[in-house]
Design brief:
With 319 residues, the protein is an all-alpha fold. It contains 14 helices and no strands.
C-alpha cells in the first residue's frame, strides 16, 4: 500500500490533478469512508483466510458486490434490476464451484494449497472458525461500503484521490500495528527476487485499484460490481498459463457461469438503448428537416409577397 500511495502522489503531482490530494471539501467525508471501508474489507478477507478454507473465504468475500448493489439502490437510488440480481447469484454460484474444487496433486506439490492446510486441520477450534466467519462478514461490509462510497462520490473526485485515501489509511494502520504489536514483527525482502515480487505486487495493486475505482465511478453500480466476479475467471486462466494447472470440469463450469453472467450484464442495456437512441435521433433529424423546409418555404413566400407589392407600387395609377 505504501507503493500505491507513492505512485498516487507522484501521478497527482506531475499531472496537477485538481483538488489533490484531499479532494473537494464536499466529498472528503465520503473519501474517508472509502478508505476505512476498503481497509476493513482487506483485513476481514486476510484474517478469514487464516482459519477458513479458501473456498469458504472466497465465496463470502464475493458477497460484497451484491451487497453494494443493494446499498446503491437504497442510498443513491441507482437501479438494481431483478435480472441483474439473478446474474449476480449465478456469478456467486460460479465462484463457489471454482472455490470448492479440490486442488490437483501438482498444485499441492508446488505449495499452492498450503494456505488452506491450516484452515482444514483439526487445530482450528470452533471459536476461531466463528470469529473468522464474523471477520469475513466485516470484510464483506467493508468492501461493500468502499464500492458504494466510490459510486456515491462519482466524478466529483479523481479516481487516484480515492485510491490514495485507501492506500494511506492502510499504510498508517499497518505501520502502527507492526510497531505496537511485537508478535507481528517486520521483515524486509532478503534478495533481488523477493524485491521484484514486492515491487511488482505494489505496482499491480496500484493499477488494479485505479481501474476498479475508475470503473465504479463511471459506470452504474450493478454493472460495475458484477464485473468483479470475473476475477475468479482470470485467476483460473493464470493458473493454467503460469503454473500449468489444468482446470477441472467443475472449474470450467464455474468460469462459464461467471463469464456468461458478466457478458449478459455488460450488453443487456446497450442494445435497447442504442436502438432507442437511433430512433430518437432519426425522429429529431426528420423534425429538424421538416422545420428547415417550412422555414425555407415561408421565406420564399415572404419574398414573393414583397416582390408583388413592389411591382404594384411601381405601376402607374389608372384614371
Amino acid at each position: 500500500m505504501s507503493i500505491t500511495s507513492i505512485l498516487c502522489f507522484a501521478y497527482m503531482y506531475f499531472n496537477k490533478v485538481p483538488y489533490a490530494p484531499f479532494g473537494k471539501r464536499e466529498v472528503r467525508g465520503l473519501l474517508v469512508a472509502r478508505g476505512v471501508g476498503g481497509f476493513f474489507g482487506v483485513t476481514g478477507l486476510y484474517y478469514s483466510l487464516v482459519y477458513l478454507p479458501i473456498a469458504e473465504a472466497t465465496v463470502l468475500s464475493f458477497l460484497a458486490p451484491m451487497v453494494a448493489g443493494f446499498a446503491c439502490s437504497f442510498l443513491i437510488n441507482e437501479p438494481f434490476p431483478r435480472l441483474e440480481q439473478i446474474a449476480a447469484l449465478f456469478s456467486i454460484g460460479g465462484v463457489g464451484l471454482i472455490a470448492v474444487d479440490s486442488p490437483s496433486p501438482e498444485s499441492a506439490k508446488n505449495g499452492t494449497a498450503n494456505i488452506a492446510s491450516r484452515a482444514q486441520s483439526s487445530d482450528v477450534s470452533s471459536s476461531h472458525r466463528l470469529g473468522a466467519i464474523c471477520m469475513a462478514m466485516v470484510g464483506v461490509l467493508g468492501a461493500a461500503s468502499a464500492y458504494t462510497t466510490i459510486r456515491w462520490i462519482g466524478k466529483r473526485a479523481h479516481p487516484l484521490i480515492s485510491v490514495n485515501y485507501f492506500a494511506v489509511w492502510c499504510t498508517i494502520v499497518s505501520t502502527t500495528a507492526l510497531l505496537a504489536v511485537p508478535d507481528i514483527g517486520f521483515k524486509l525482502p532478503s534478495n533481488a527476487i523477493e524485491w521484484t515480487y514486492f515491487v511488482g505486487m505494489g505496482i499491480s495493486g496500484f493499477v488494479m485499484q485505479f481501474l476498479l475505482t475508475a470503473g465504479l465511478q463511471f459506470e452504474k453500480s450493478s454493472r460495475a460490481n458484477n464485473m468483479v466476479y470475473t476475477l475468479m475467471f482470470f485467476a483460473l486462466a493464470a493458473d493454467k498459463v503460469i503454473w500449468g494447472t489444468t482446470p477441472s470440469l467443475v472449474s470450467v463450469t464455474g468460469s462459464g457461469l461467471i463469464l456468461g453472467s458478466a457478458v449478459y450484464v455488460a450488453v443487456k442495456k446497450d442494445a435497447p438503448k442504442t436502438g432507442k437512441n437511433r430512433e430518437q435521433r432519426g425522429d429529431d433529424e426528420e423534425e429538424a428537416a421538416f422545420l428547415v423546409q417550412n422555414s425555407e418555404d415561408q421565406e420564399q413566400t415572404e419574398v414573393l409577397e414583397l416582390h408583388s407589392a413592389a411591382v404594384r407600387q411601381s405601376e402607374p395609377q389608372r384614371p
